[in-house]
Amino acid sequence: MPDFLVISAELAWPLAVLLAWLAGEFIHRWTRLPRISVYGAVGFLCAQAFPDLFATDGASPVSLLANVAFGLILFELGYRINLHWLRINPWVPVSALVETFATFAVVYLIAHLWGLPSMTSLLLASLAMSTSPAGVLRVINESRSSGQVTERVQHLVAINCVLAVLVFKVIVGFWVFQTSGSLTQAISHSLIELVASALLGAIFGMIVPAVLRHLGTLARDGTVAFALVVIILVAITHAADLSPVLATLAFGLTARHRRVAFTRTVRNFGAIGELMTVLLFVFAVSTLSWNNVLFGGGLALVLLLARFVVKTASVAAFAHVGGIPWRKGVLTGIALSPMSVFVVLLLEQTKNAGIVLVDELAAVAAMTLFMEVIGPIFTQRALIMARETAQE
Amino acid sequence: MPLETFNGGTPLTMGVELELQLVSFSDYDLTASSPDLLHLLARKPFPGNVTPEITESMIEINSDVHTKHSELLAQLHEVRDTLVTAGEQLNIGIAGGGTHPFQKWVDRRIFEKPRFQQVSQLYGYLAKQFTVFGQHVHIGCANGDDALFLLHSLSRYLPHFIALSASSPFVQGGDTLFNSARLNSVFAFPMSGRAPFLLSWDEFAHSYFAKMEHTGVIKSMKDFYWDIRPKPEYGTIELRVCDTPLTVERAAALACYLQALCAYLLERKEQPPAEDDYLVYNYNRFQACRFGLDGTVVHPKTYESLSLREDILTTLRKMDPYAERLGGTAALNHLMQVTHMGSDAQYLRDQFATSGSVEGMVDAAVRRFRGRM
C-alpha cells in the first residue's frame, strides 16, 4: 500500500497551484479583482493549513521554478524599458530617485523609532524601496492597459527594483562584515555580486540577438530562445550566488536595445508563463508564517501606509513637469503599491548565502502578505481610474 | 436639416489632414495615448490643428489653408517637429503608414466623445477595425457645381493617389499582398465607395441629400465615407483614398499633385465626366490597392489597358506647367522619384526583410516620420 503522506507531499504543490488557478478564475469573474491577489491568498492559506507539506528550502525545485517565473517577468520588464526616454524626459528618473530614496528614509526612521535595531531598520527600509515587477506587470497584461500611467509605472518599477537590490546588497554586505569581520566576504556578497550579475545578463543580451539574427528566424524563434536563456541565467545565478533579478533585467534591457523583437503575441511567455506565474505567487507567500505576520502586523501597517503616501506624493510632485496631469501622477504613485514577490525572492536568495533574515524581519512577513493580496488591487484600480484599461 | 449652402472659396487652395499612429516605445504596438498626448499639446500653441480620432491610438492633424507647396511643407514640418518632441516626452512614437502592421483591433479603445461612441454603437467591431490611417486632401472650389465636376472628373485619376501613397502592406501581423490594405477596411462601411453621379449642386442638395436624409440613414455629410466627397462648409472637395504616407514631404507632394490636376481639369479640355466612367472604377481602384505602381488600369473613356506607373508618369509630365504656375514643381519631382524608387509599402516590406520582424518595421516607420533617415 503506498504511503499516503508521501503522495500528499508530492501532490501538494501541483494541487495548490490548481486550486489557486481555479479560485483566481472564479473570483476574477465575480469580482474583477486581479487573479494574482487570489493566488497569493490561496497560497498563504494552503501553507498555513499544511505547513509541513509546503516547507521548501532555497534549493528545492519549487523555489528554482519560482525564480525562473520571476526571471521571465523581469526579462519582459527589461525588454520594455526605453533608456532613451529616461534621457529625454529626466523628470521620470528624477521622480523614481526621489520616491525610492524618500521611501527608504521614511521607513528607516519609523522602524528606528519603533525600537528596531539599526541594521534591521536599514534592511526593512531597503526592501520597502522596491515595487514588485511581477505584481505590476501581471496586472498590466491582465487588464491590457496602455497610457502614461502604464508606461511610467513600468519604468519606475525597473528603476526602484535596481536601486532596492543595490542598497539591500550593500546593507547585507555590511551585515556580513559586522557578523563575520571579513571584508572580502562582505564585498563578495555585495559589489561583486551586483556587477557580475548585471554583466552576465548584458553579455547574454548581446549574444542571443546576434545568434538569432544569424539564424534569420527572429520572429519565429525569438521567444523560445529568450525563455531558454532566462532559465539558464537563473540557473547560473542560483549556482553562483549572483542576483537573478539584475541578470534577467539586464538581459531584457540589452536585448531590447539590440533591436530584436520579443513578439507581442507571446506576452507573459504564453500559457507556460501563465502557469509559472500561478506557481510564483503561491510560492511567495507559502514561505511566510502566521506567527511572523501577527507579530509584525502593527509595524507593517504603519510602514505600508508611510510607503504608500511617500511614493504617491513623490511621483505626483513631478507629474506636471514630466508632462502628465496631476491626477495621473497620483495614480502612477498608487500603482506602485505591490512589493511582495520581489521581497520574498530577494530574502530567499539571501538565505542561500547562509543569512536568514525572514525571522529577523517579522514586519516583512506581514508587509509581504498584505501587499501580495492588496498591492495588485491598488495597481488595477489606479489603471482603471486612469482610463487606461481595455474596454470590456 | 437641409444640406448647408456650398461656401465657395478661393479655387485651388489646399489643406491637408493626416491621421497618425501613436506607437508605444515599450513594445512598438499601438498605445491608447491620444488623451495623454492631447493634454500635453494643449499646454502650448500648436502650429496647426490636432484632434482625437475614433480610437485612442490615433490622432489627426490639419494644416491651415495654403496655396503654395513651400508654405504647406513648412507648416507640416513644424507640426511634425512639435508632435515628435511631445511624443518623446511621453515615450510615444508618432508614425505615418496606412495600417499598423500587427496591432489587434480587439485591443483598441474608442475615444470618449459622443460621435465616436455613436459610430461604435452602430458599426460594432468595424469601428475598431477602422484603426487605419489616411491622408485627406481638401481643394478649394469656387462653387458647388465646380466641386461636383471635379469630384467626378478625378475618378479617373484616383488610382494614382492610391498607388503613390500606398503604405499599408501588413494587417494583423501578416503580409496582405496588397500595397494599400487600408482601403479594404473603409470599404466595409455601407456609405463608402463612390458618390452618386450628379453634376449640379442644386440637384445634389435638394434631391439626393434630402432623400437620403429622409430615409434616416444619414444625418450629415460626415456619414458618407466616399472616396471623394464635397465639403460644403469649407467650400472644398476632399480626397480620402490616400494612406497616410511615412513622411510629411510625401503628404505635401500628393496635395500639390491634386492641386495641379484640379487646375488642369478646370480648364475643361478633357472629355466631360460621365456615369459610364464608373464601369471600370472599382477594378482600377482594386488594381492600385493590390499591385500599387505595378498595377494595370483601364482607361474609362477608351477602355485601353495602361500600366499605372506609365500613366502616372505621363500625367505628371502633363501637369508640369500647372505645377510651375502654382509653385509645386518640387512636389511633382518628389512623386517622379516615387515612381522610380517604389512606394512606402515597398519600403516597409524591405524593412521587414532587413529587421526580421514587424516590430522592426514599426521602428523604421517611426524613424522615417522624424525625417532622420
TrEMBL record, chain A:
- GO cellular component terms attached to this protein's record: membrane
Give any single GO term for biological process: proton transmembrane transport
Q: Which GO terms describe its molecular function?
A: antiporter activity
Any stretches that span the bilayer, and where are they?
A: 6-24, 36-55, 61-79, 91-114, 156-177, 189-212, 224-253, 265-286, 292-310, 330-347, 353-378
Domain named Cation/H+ exchanger transmembrane: residues: 18-380
* InterPro entries xref list: Cation/H_exchanger_TM, Na+/solute_symporter_sf
Q: Where in the cell is it found?
A: Membrane
* Protein keywords: Membrane, Transmembrane, Transmembrane helix
Pfam families registered for this protein in UniProt: Na_H_Exchanger
Q: How does it sit in the membrane?
A: Multi-pass membrane protein
Q: Which Gene3D superfamilies match?
A: 1.20.1530.20
Top-rank taxon: Bacteria
What name goes with this protein?
A: Sodium:proton antiporter
TrEMBL record, chain B:
Listed under catalytic activity are: L-cysteine + L-glutamate + ATP = gamma-L-glutamyl-L-cysteine + ADP + phosphate + H(+)
Keyword Ligase present in the record's keywords: the answer is yes
Could you tell me the EC number(s) of this protein?
6.3.2.2
Q: Name one GO molecular function term.
A: ATP binding
Any single Pfam family the record assigns to this protein: GCS2
Keywords of the record: ATP-binding, Ligase, Nucleotide-binding
Instruction: Please cite one Gene Ontology biological process associated with this protein.
Output: modified amino acid biosynthetic process
Output the InterPro entries linked to this UniProt entry: GCL_type2/YbdK_subfam, GCS2, Gln_synth/guanido_kin_cat_dom, YbdK
Give the domain of life.
Bacteria
Outline what the protein does: ATP-dependent carboxylate-amine ligase which exhibits weak glutamate--cysteine ligase activity.
Q: Which family does it belong to?
A: Belongs to the glutamate--cysteine ligase type 2 family. YbdK subfamily.
Q: Under what name is this protein listed? A: Putative glutamate--cysteine ligase 2
Please give the organism.
Answer: Pseudoduganella plicata
